[in-house]
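Q: Can someone sanity-check these two? First one:
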Amino acid sequence: MSHAQEPSVADDELAPTQTAGYKPGEKKTLDEYAQLDAEDESLARWKASLGIGASGAGPTPNAPKLTLHSLSLVSPTAPGGAVSINLEQGKEQLEALRKNPLVVKEGVEYNVKIRFSVGSDILSGLKYVQVVKRAGVTVDRMEEMIGSYGPKAEPYEKNFASNEAPSGMLARSGTNSVRSRVIDDDGTVYADWSWAFKIAKDW
């Protein structure tokens, strides 16, 4: 999933916002989390939400820490409810995403949704960062909290806040280049890819 860096988007644009006074906690293994104070009720609930200690839960041996399956632009007006990108394609197909933009109907409400799996460790403080450029100029930046997730056989889905697609002749006149990244509070990049979309009169 990780590609060569696209020169048009600087790394600092894709860096997550740091919370004032926040210091990322020490990373722990699944076993270390499982052995934390079992009498702490709030901690027990948090561990249960990540699947720690649940029967049948646990890491998949040799699995990637995070696997992204798809990115979708979800809208009730879209055919089938969403237009999606398969992020499990080979490198050449993923490179082609920049040349084959998704089509978004002007003026519609939509939201970004990602589908992903966590395989071998607890991932905490994950964020999704997206930078949109037109003709080399940044026109939008989105940063959304994904959260903390433990290993699980079934994929997770995360929906982000709604946006309204621009409208008008100017909006329809070009392609929007997007660079997306999944990153944590420590600055570890789990996924980094480029794609594109264009605004049209209809889906």
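And here is the second, same format, sequence then tokens:
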Amino acid sequence: MTQDLGTTRRLIQAGRTSATDEIERCIAAAQSDACAHAFTRTDFATARQRASQPGAQHLPLAGLAVSIKDLFDVRGQPTAAGSVVLADAPAAAHDCAAVARLRAAGASILGRTHMVEFAFSGVGTNPHFSTPVAWDARFGTLPGPARVPGGSSSGAGVSVATGAAFIGLGSDTGGSIRIPAALNGIVGFKSTARLVPASGVVPLSRTLDTVGALTRSVSDAIVAHEILAARRVTRSPAPLSAWRLAVPQTLFLEGMDATVAQAFARTLQTLRSAGAHIEEITLPEVAEALQINATGGFSAAESYAWHRHLLAQHGHRYDPRVRSRIERGAAMSAADYIDLLDARQRWSERMQAAIDGFDALLSPTVPIVAPTIASVAPADGQDPAQDAARDTAFAQANSLLLRNTSPINFLDGCGLSLPCHQAGELPVGLMVWHGPLRDDAVLNISLRAEAALAMP
């Protein structure tokens, strides 16, 4: 697997490498074929300058490369959110809070990354720009045809997996950090939303949006979270055997393809062999969340409120697949929205009561491996029947990719995806998760799980 931030920082401090050397390696990776289309904008000169500043090596990020999803305000640059509609937006006057915290911690910003238009899909395609290809950070290029990188933080995932960035700043509204992490063989952590400020970020859902990072290891995820949340994670030396874990059967395990099913079963056995106590539970409340959100949920209602004026003027320029999901919010009344708020509160109380006795829950991050890009490519108007088939395949893939991750957002919980596949398999993610403000337990358990899975 590509060397992580923690290891690289220790090598810098030992004088065995330097931030300037590492920036050159990251730039070479960003310019490689593996990273094609992952970045929408690069600024190598500024990154080199930042990495060479005296004292950078003593900061938490030591002058190392970070990528920024094109959803976040970066001083002096327009924030396009993956859309041609905002391509001519005025440059941001200030860094958003997350970018400012990364800079203060010593990040060298390599560039802005590709994303699904306005962050509204878990697949990773965007008809305005070429789609980056999924990459396996553990074992290199994926066999067979090009596969989607997952979304909406698609370029962020590829930038980290290919070695172009140590941290990919992303956002997660229904899985947009954890999905690309799973499909690219890396780590993605969605914290409790309130812990990281979302100011200066183009919103999808003000209720569900979470700012977070994709990294190469769980320890790097902890470093990134501590910077972004401006808090210290309480570390625990407790072994896996000290934690009570559960595998919910309802919904999470349905429709798994053979690769995911095999990897997940093997992972549970490995964790049990390492001492983990894992119980199977039903957790029917998870299925209720899909029913509650059947009309579009917060993402549809809140995105429509933000986009309705832009849609009136530029609707024809939107990705049709994104526009159709945003426009579902037009049919939701104020009464519907209040009902949704109340339903979420009641559901969350039941859900938290059901899982409160466990330290974390384990699930496949997504139930399928990455679909091929060709199977879900945007319509091109050349063959209406083929376009219709791709739209259907896209809708099915998007639903499956988001299915396991989105309940954690609805719960305002926290979840981390870490790779659990082996050589010769397409990337598969293990999701360790719990409810709100259980972040430290999830991170500590993920550290232990990662170590157990790395053992021969």
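A (reply): Looked at the second one. The two ends are 15 Å apart (CA to CA). The mean pLDDT is 97.
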